[in-house]
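help with this.
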Amino acid sequence: MIGEKGTDSGERVLLAEDRKYWVSELCRIAEPVLRLLAARELKKTMPVQSAAGQDRSDVTHLEALGRLLCGIAPWLAGSGGADEEEERLRQQYAELSRAAIAAGCDPQSPDYMNFAEGFQPIVDTAFLAQAILRAPTELWDKLDTEVQKHVVQAFKLTRSRKPFAMNWLLFSAIIEAALYRMGESDWDPMRIDYALKQHEQWYVGDGAYGDGPSFHFDYYNSFVIQPMLVDIIAAVQGCYEDWDAMQASIKERAKRWAEVQERLISPEGTFPPLGRSLAYRCGAMQSLAQSALLDELPVSVSPAQARCALTAVIRRSLSVPGTFTEDGWLTIGFCGSQPDIGEHYISTGSLYLCAAVFLPLGLAAEHPFWSGEPEDWTARKAWSGAAFSMDQALKG
């Protein structure tokens, strides 16, 4: 087992190398998107792979920007890297990220993105908003005043779009939460109120929300619902008493969902290919990753245990041949290149939500998540005959 000193599992690098591996994989994913956007050459260069018969070229670039930054933001906001090389990379990618935001939101840029046509821009403006909430100093406060104006204008353009009655309500809400953080006096509390209270109506128990009136067996509680509820309620804390009263239950449910996610990770680092949007790969584990980042893990999951489980998932998700093109772009697939599992709304930009698994890089290298001795995760303990904790449903 991983937790036994002196055991060579052959499945993971030495403890001191875990963080370096995470950083290298995140930079590998981020490099082509941010480098080309900073140079204002993304639309000219980025390949757009979509489902057969679909043209997603009008939305895919904002997808890539918003989803990538959503995952990389905590690392950019951190200052507790393992060494000077990581700090150099962090500063480099923070600068590239700011330049990318400037390029995507400037109406005069060749890479100006679609914030107003069709419904999809609500989704990926929301992920960009979530990124800003996760790293406000690096991704907002350090932007030039003119760039900030462009970002605000872009965000407000999405108000002309009506979200669907499902997890999409949270997209409109988190955009308004970001506008509140940006100091915009006309931020709309009603969009936030509606999303929060509607999701309370859609709570089905044991930490899970329905995606609209019905519950779906998929990963949208992790792709969107739990992480956005947690980030929205934190961003608007103190605005209204009834919102503040919801925070405890939102956090407790997210903690339970993280516990469920950790138990879904097999001894080999795989997880069930359930539901839609499987092309987001290891981004399916965002809820567990966020709970680790926020020090909100359940008692049954230690920080080191979460690190080992997530590292195994990252390796299984990103190391399979065909995951990247020769030029370093992600391909449609759950494990390697599997274009047939891409729904009609999936394209190259969509795939960058896999970056959400890297949220714990926002923790300092000295944090127990990174410094704790290797520890088996629940399924690995259970299937090796070792002792493991009983699972208990969340009451209420």
Summary: The radius of gyration is 20 Å.
